[in-house]
Design goal:
Layout lengths: L3 H44 L2 E2 L1 H22 L14 H6 L3 E5 L6 E5 L6 H8 L1 H19 L3 E2 L1 H31 L12 H4 L3 H7 L1
Parallel strand pairs: 1-4
Antiparallel strand pairs: 2-3
Helix pairs in contact: 1-6, 2-4, 2-5, 4-5, 6-8
Length: 211
């Protein structure tokens, strides 16, 4: 027959063992979640990073080329080459502040007076495109330097985001396996609110195979 003291000693040992297991589980789970949070923060920083120098130059050139195309469309240069009867310097100048086009769904043309159709940048894009692109690039690059943010090329950014996403996925699978093991041992485990449903619903075999 077991004595009360012996029973109490046995229960105390079981409780101590359970508390030790719970503490170890909590420590491991916290460590995994801290790593997940850190990697997610890194991924956001990479995703929102500034473009590298080559990309900024390419964007500046793209902007200037687009403004030049818009200027060619908006300025009625054909008036200068019109017949004597249709040519008018005053009309050419007047049309610099007029948008010509066609209403959607209508064959009737329209002309709308505007205060400014062409910005100074539009004219510079026609007159001195290289100088304008260089100025835009220089100002943008200065802003990047002043902000102190990291810069990435598109390829480097995509590769780094893929690496971080893969590492997060591995930790999330380990996290779910740990939670299931704890629950199997009678320990409660609350999931993160942002834990992916894919891993929450995955069978153990899939989690273990991917880990």
């Amino acid at each position: 027959m077991l004595k009360p003291k012996s029973i109490l000693a046995s229960l105390a040992g079981l409780i101590a063992t359970q508390r030790s297991a719970a503490a170890e589980f909590g420590t491991n789970l916290e460590a995994i979640r801290e790593q997940i949070s850190d990697l997610q923060r890194q991924r956001v920083e990479v995703e929102t990073s500034a473009p590298d120098d080559a990309a900024v130059k390419a964007r500046a050139a793209e902007i200037v080329a687009l403004m030049a195309d818009q200027a060619r469309t908006r300025v009625m240069f054909e008036i200068v080459a019109a017949s004597d009867a249709d040519y008018s310097a005053e009309r050419f100048i007047d049309l610099l502040s007029t948008v010509h086009g066609q209403a959607h769904g209508s064959e009737a043309p329209f002309a709308v007076k505007l205060r400014q159709v062409l910005s100074p940048f539009h004219l510079e894009a026609l007159l001195r495109p290289d100088a304008l692109a260089s100025m835009i690039y220089g100002e943008a690059a200065r802003h990047v330097v002043a902000s102190g943010v990291a810069t990435y090329s598109t390829a480097k950014r995509e590769a780094e985001c893929a690496r971080l996403t893969d590492e997060v996925g591995q930790l999330e699978r380990a996290e779910e396996l740990l939670c299931r093991a704890a629950e199997g041992a009678g320990l409660p485990c609350e999931r993160r609110v942002d834990a992916p449903a894919r891993w929450l619903l995955a069978p153990d075999a899939e989690l273990q195979a991917a880990a």
